[in-house]
Amino acid sequence: MPLEGRYLNSSPEVAKLRDLCNRAAGERVERTYSSPAVGLSPSQILEAQRLYESGESLRQIGFKIGFNDKTVKKASINAGVDVQARRQKR
């Protein structure tokens, strides 16, 4: 795809873009992946567990402690809380 004129790039800008693309194509970047940290503190997890056991929904709990329901669920599972137990009791 021609770079010059496509987006009103001047010749010096096109040369810089080509140089940047050529350098980037030759570089190898090592990436490491780690699971993102769940932002609930231990006390928030205990509070979430207490609220959950008292009948609150994950959405209500998240609203009360300032996180979304998916974060609350993930943190609870990571902490060993059985988030399916209440549903099975019904």
Please explain how this structure is put together.
- With 90 residues, this protein is mainly α.
- The chain has a domain at 42-89.
- Helices cover 57% and strands 0% of the residues.
- It has helices spanning 11-26, 42-53, 58-65, 69-78, 85-89.
- Helix 2 packs antiparallel against helix 3 and helix 3 packs across helix 4.
- The longest helix has 16 residues, at 11-26.
- The termini are far apart.
Topology:
Blueprint: H1 11-26, H2 42-53, H3 58-65, H4 69-78, H5 85-89
Record keyword descriptors for this entry.
about 0% strand, mainly alpha, single chain, 5 helices, about 90 residues
Low-confidence stretches: none
Number of helices: 5
Helix content, binned percent: 55-70%
Order of helices and strands: HHHHH
Characterize the biggest β-sheet. none
Short overview:
By secondary structure, the chain is an all-alpha fold. The protein has five helices and no strands. 11% of the residues are buried.
